């Protein structure tokens, strides 16, 4: 157990190192988010205050701030405004996600839709997006406006693609990667590329950070989906089984289906076609996942994207910021929060 705890601490350190390296800018980002969400409408203010209080890792904002710092940006506070912007996009997608998934708990607290209804939650998500677009226009950079508006569009399309393949246990791995690339990796890629655009670096640096962010995002989502079935990692603080009980088909189920005998495949289809899945169903699936060593296979696939992300930073000179971003790839694979 000691070795696991040491690994956990080392992994988490990379996140906190990034946070510490841009601490002042991150505090300004938080203030920017709060000020931008001020509203005369009482319910809007109440719901956005509640959302802000639920916290979050602010990882996408950190990626924008860290990438800008890596590229030498030091001209003002545009990095703060755009870090706030990417966080607002992320927050809006979470609100819409919770409505679609009928989620009731996020970050250990009741979701907005659970407290105030689906209608209000959708509208508040739209409100956050509208505020974000105001900030993008205020920034005035056409390249950034085009990038973030395109990213928002791709995220929405990823949501629809996931709905289209809901409960589909024989989904192609390629389709799954398209879904998580759109839903998760696109915003990671935009977050890192924005930092490079701000610093007005060459295209090769912009492309490298975009590639880094995209592969970091793929790693992040594969790890998150795998953790949902990994009873060995309960100590990492996430309740397992959430995706399963929602009927969401992710990489562990896709890889499992490929290895099952025909009678087992039919049983898996039956389980995911049910309106509600039971604890017994979940335990049976966990047994099959352990039998076919699916968890290890998922992490091996994630490791591929870690290597791509880490190697993409080779175009940058050695620096503290570069080292932190390289280490962050491990955090995305095995974080504990």
Looking at this protein, list some descriptive labels.
76% helix, 337 residues, disordered N terminus, Farnesyl Diphosphate Synthase, two-stranded antiparallel ribbon, globular, 16 helices, mainly alpha
Plain-language structure description:
- It is a single chain.
- The protein is an all-alpha fold and 337 residues long.
- The chain has one domain (12-330): Farnesyl Diphosphate Synthase (Orthogonal Bundle).
- Helix content is 76%, strand content 1%.
- The chain is built from 16 helices and 2 strands.
- It has a two-stranded antiparallel sheet.
- A hairpin with a 2-residue loop joins strand 1 and strand 2.
- The longest helix has 26 residues, at 173-198.
- The radius of gyration is 20 Å and the shape is globular.
- The relative contact order is 0.12.
- Mean pLDDT is 89; it is low at 1-10.
Would you give the CATH topology?
Answer: Farnesyl Diphosphate Synthase
The tally of strands reads: 2
User: What Rg, in angstroms, do the CA atoms define?
Assistant: 20 Å
Strand content: under 5%
Tally the helices. 16
Major sheet details? 2 strands, antiparallel
Can you tell me the residue ranges where pLDDT is under 50 for at least 5 consecutive residues? 1-10
CATH level-four homologous superfamily name: Farnesyl Diphosphate Synthase
Please give the CATH class: Mainly Alpha
Assigned CATH architecture: Orthogonal Bundle
Tally of structural domains: 1
Strand and helix order: HHHHHEEHHHHHHHHHHH
Spatial strand arrangement across the major sheet: 1-2
Structural category: mainly alpha
Q: Tell me the span between the first and last alpha carbons.
A: 18 Å
Give the overall pLDDT as a whole number.
89
Helix content: over 70%
């Amino acid at each position: 157990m000691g070795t696991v705890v040491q690994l956990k601490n080392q992994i988490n350190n990379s996140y906190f190192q990034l946070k510490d390296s841009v601490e002042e800018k991150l505090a300004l980002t938080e203030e920017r988010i709060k000020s931008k969400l001020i509203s005369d409408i009482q319910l809007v203010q109440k719901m956005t205050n509640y959302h802000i209080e639920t916290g979050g890792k602010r990882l996408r904002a950190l990626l924008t701030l860290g990438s800008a710092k890596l590229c030498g940006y030091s001209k003002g506070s545009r990095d703060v405004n755009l870090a706030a912007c990417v966080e607002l996009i992320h927050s809006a997608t979470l609100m819409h996600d919770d409505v679609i998934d009928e989620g009731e708990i996020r970050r250990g607290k009741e979701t907005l839709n659970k407290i105030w209804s689906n209608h209000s939650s959708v509208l508040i998500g739209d409100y956050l997006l509208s505020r974000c677009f105001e900030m993008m226009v205020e920034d005035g950079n056409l390249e950034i406006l085009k990038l973030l508006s395109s990213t928002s569009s791709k995220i929405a399309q990823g949501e629809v693609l996931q709905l289209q393949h809901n409960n589909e246990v024989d989904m192609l791995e390629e389709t799954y990667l398209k879904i998580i690339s759109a839903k998760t990796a696109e915003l990671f890629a935009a977050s890192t590329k924005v930092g490079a655009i701000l610093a007005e670096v060459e295209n090769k640096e912009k492309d490298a950070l975009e590639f880094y962010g995209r592969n970091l995002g793929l790693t992040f989502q594969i790890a998150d989906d795998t953790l949902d079935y990994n009873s060995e990692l309960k100590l990492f603080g996430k309740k397992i089984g959430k995706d399963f009980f929602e009927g969401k088909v992710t990489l562990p189920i896709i890889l499992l289906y490929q290895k099952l005998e025909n009678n087992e495949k039919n049983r898996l289809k039956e389980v995911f076609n049910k309106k509600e899945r039971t604890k017994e169903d979940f335990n049976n699936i966990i047994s099959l996942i352990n039998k076919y060593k699916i968890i290890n296979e998922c992490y091996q696939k994630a490791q591929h994207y870690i290597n791509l992300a880490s190697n993409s930073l080779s175009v940058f000179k050695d620096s503290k910021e570069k080292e932190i971003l390289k280490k962050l790839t491990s955090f995305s694979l095995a974080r504990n929060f």
